[in-house]
Amino acid sequence: MPADTLKQLFDFLKDNRIYNKEVQQAFYRSVILPYQSPNDKIISLLHLEILMN
């Protein structure tokens, strides 16, 4: 990947850091919200990690 493209990508991520964090938090919140116990929430996140890989 050319250095200019990497710089543009890095600049984009840096400029949108707050928005990206909000999107990630909303997504993970939606994954764990249906579960009550911390154990169930962790298991839900672990299953998500397995599905994404």
Number of strands: 0
State the separation between the terminal residues, measured CA to CA. Answer: 23 Å
Q: What is the radius of gyration?
A: 16 Å
Q: For the report, how would you describe the main beta sheet?
A: none
Q: What low-confidence regions span 5 or more consecutive residues with pLDDT below 50?
A: none
Helical residue percent? Answer: over 70%
Total domains, how many?
A: 1
What portion of residues belong to β-strands? under 5%
What general form does the structure show? elongated
Quote the average pLDDT. 93
Q: What structural class results from the helix and strand content?
A: mainly alpha
**Discrete helix count:** 3
What are the secondary-structure elements, in order, as H or E?
A: HHH
Describe this protein's structure.
The chain is mainly alpha-helical. It has 3 helices and no strands. The mean pLDDT is 93.
Supply database-style keywords.
mainly alpha; 53 residues; 3 helices; elongated
